[in-house]
Every structure is written in structure tokens, then in C-alpha cells.
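## retry 2 of 3
previous attempt timed out at serialization; input unchanged, resubmitting
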Amino acid sequence: MSQPTLTYRLGDREVGRLGYGAMQLAGPGVFGPPADEAKAIQVLRDAVSAGVNHIDTSDFYGPHITNQIIKKALHPYPADLCIVTKVGARRDDKANWLPAFSGEELTRAVEDNLRNLGLDAIEVVNLRSMHGVHGPAEGSLEAELETLITLKERGLIRHIGLSNVTAKQVVDAQAMTPIVCVQNMYNVANREDDALIDVLNGQGIAYVPFFPLGGFTPLQSGELNAVAQRLNATPMQVALAWLLQRSPNILLIPGTSSPAHLQENLASAQLTLPDDVLDILNGIDKR
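## retry succeeded, writing output
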């Protein structure tokens, strides 16, 4: 089996399909500063040096901390670096995640991202639906999208994406404005978005899964571990390689605060899963 294509279109950019998610750069619970800021800076610089040109972040990571570290590590940014953020939530002083969906809150969130990242415009802003806390749930996003469309018209946002959304919400949003990516939970054991991924692929729209190892049962984890041992790889590398081979429009954003773990994640791009392994993995979600 041939290697999957390792770039895909995201808005106006051609980005590597293996990017970097910055959430783990903050402190425990994605709150407060990291124990070792110098190490966090090194991870970011190592990622970019290795060719990563897609970084996923949000100003509610920390809050503010993660974006400030990204700016300290990488600003002025390489011309090909695509930074994607998300809005729709906020943190209180007890580290709780709360909806922040009013026009004023969304506008402030975009302005906070711009300031803390040191940007004049953000390449992609994902609207994270808070209708469902632990997964997508139906509900109108019209008012929130109107706010982002206004910010796009002001030149503060170049492209709009969606996160934690249903297929219907994607269709409804597309009736209002172009959508360049969808970011939902998806992995080899949780494949509710199979049909949505295929639809978006047909439209040339990126799909960005998070939690590549989230929600596994012990049996499913055991099967993944066995495959990884056979291939002399880590379970995470196998999970990422499966996603790369699942569909060409999938962009990956695995996160880590460890330089060594970063290199392991990046190496998954060189791991091609043979057909019999794909058959095993494709059946995991049914067990």
C-alpha cells in the first residue's frame, strides 16, 4: 500500500497533514502556566523545525498562557505557518469550562487571540459549539456565526471553521458562509463521523479529529496495543497512521509537551499500515 498524501488544503494554505495541537502546553487541566516553560518553547520550535506548519490553539487554553508561549517561541512567524484557534468557551478562576457565545464574548475572544498571538488576522477561527458539553448536540449557531462573519468582514478572521458540531449544523453553517474545516472527536474506536468525513472530503473541506486515543474500551486498547507491538510502533503512532490512511482530508493535531514524544508523533507519518492491519483496526469500533 502506498503512503498517504501528506498535505491538504486548509483555507488558502496547503498544510502538512500532521500538525501540532498546543493544548498540553498549559499547566495541569489546561490551566495556568506549565511547570517548564523553556521545554514548552522547545517543543514548538522543534515542531516547526521538523516541518510542521499547522498549529491548533485557543486563548482559553491557560487561559492566555498557551498563545503567549506560542508567540514567545515562534514570533515573528514563518510565512507558511497556519495558526488555527477556536472560540465559544471561557475559563473561570476555578478552571471550569463555561460557554462564551454572546456576540460580545466571541468578539473579545478573537481580539484576545490576536493580541496574545501577536497577529493582525487569524487564518482560521473555529466556532466551538457548546450545545453539547461532551459531544455534538443540535442547536442553532446562526447568531454566533453572524458575529464571526462580521469579524471576517473586518479583516480579523480569514476563514471560519466549526468544532463539536453535527452534520446538520455543518450544512446550516455552509448556507451562511464558507466553512474550511470541521473539528470533532474521531478515532479508530469512535467513528460516528464516518459519513461526515466522506461528505467533507467530497467538498474539499478538512476534517480535524481530536482525542486520537479517547474513549477506548480495555478490549479495544488491547487490540491496538497488539497491532502496535507487531509493527514495532507505539499505540499512538498506529492510531495516527490509521487516521492518515482513513481519508486524505483528515488533518492531525496531536499534542504533547515532550520533545521526545513530539518526534514519536511525527514519525507516524512514515508508518504505512498493511491491509490486514487495517482490517483489524477498522473492526475495532464494533467491539
